[in-house]
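Changelog-linked ticket: 3-phosphoglyceric acid example.
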Amino acid sequence: IDELLAGGVSGKRVFVRADLNVPLDDGTITDDGRIRAVLPTVKALADAGAKVVVASHLGRPKGAPDPAFSLAPAASRLGELLGSAVAFATDTVGQSAQDTVAGLADGQVAVLENLRFNPGETAKDDAERGAFADRLAALADVYVGDGFGAVHRKHASVYDLPARLPHYAGHLIATEVGVLKKLTEDVKRPYVVALGGAKVSDKLAVIDELLAKADRLLIGGGMAYTFLKAKGHEVGISLLQEDQIPAVTEYMERAEKNGVELVLPVDVLVSPEFPDLKTKAPANPTTVDSDKIPADQEGLDIGPKTRELYASKLADAATVFWNGPMGVFEHPDYAEGTKAVAQALVDSNGFTVVGGGDSAAAVRTLGFDENAFGHISTGGGASLEYLEGKTLPGLAALED
Ligand code: 3PG
């Protein structure tokens, strides 16, 4: 983007593919981190006199307009953060988008409605995606990719559109890639990775890669129960992916062979019921050792001994990557595990990176100061796929 700005963008229509996929509760944004993250790019372009056309997806609508997934709340929040009115187009490539873009003055910003309201955005068929990309291309002179959270998607606005316009990487993508390089090239050791979240199947590929890269892997969240079961423990009614047990068993063996310390919870908080996340009524969990989970109970957070153990395993790290909550942090009775890991990152003298998605939202909603971390990524799936060593379509499209 610096190259683009140096060449001058005044009067040019610049399409910024952002990731404004923010969590919403009844139309209210509960974490605006992703909107704040794209501000440097949007501001720089607007200040340089560009007509800035911001586009994004939000949620997973079914290829048709759906008010529950409107980007209108994100557009107003962007306007508040910029301190200037932002125009909003009620469609993506239709009359409203065309009129809104045509009406932009130099230095003004517009947001288009959710890209995924059009089936061409996510189509598997190249021609269908290409046709949608052609219509998006007609709205702009230049493309800036800055939606890091979506670079792992081969979608029209991420992958096909940059091929149709002069294209540049925005500030956010440059920062994110710079940080992830520190986790993949010349990593400072010990390199400790904490992984949580519900499903082990989402993390298999990254664990596979980390078994050759990391020094220590700490496992928490719902996925820990598949590891505990693979180790021979009963896990009651906890989340379990039986079909992943062979893979997890092989990973535990490989960890031992490679000298990677793979650490599992030694105690967990259990309850016969999943907590009510709306009322947040007291859940009154009990703490049990992880090899003594009662048959009728579900593990919902790591326990106090594990919190201490994980903090000690993170204490000497020179590099830390953390992705995925340790428990059901949305309920206060099950937030302590996630808080303890976040606190260990805050206390660390190493370079600490919080992977996006739930863990990024968790550190903010649990009241941690964002500046206390080395970096909080805006990409959950995107940062994991980067660490897996995959080619990310949205980065490949900007690289040529
Ligand atoms: C995310 O939230 O990880 C990104 O915005 C991508 O969203 P998606 O998983 O729906 O493609």
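Closing comment: Example verified and attached. The pocket of 3-phosphoglyceric acid is lined by residues 19, 21, 60, 149-150, 153, 357, 380-381 (CB under 6 Å). DSSP finds 15 helices and 17 strands in the chain.
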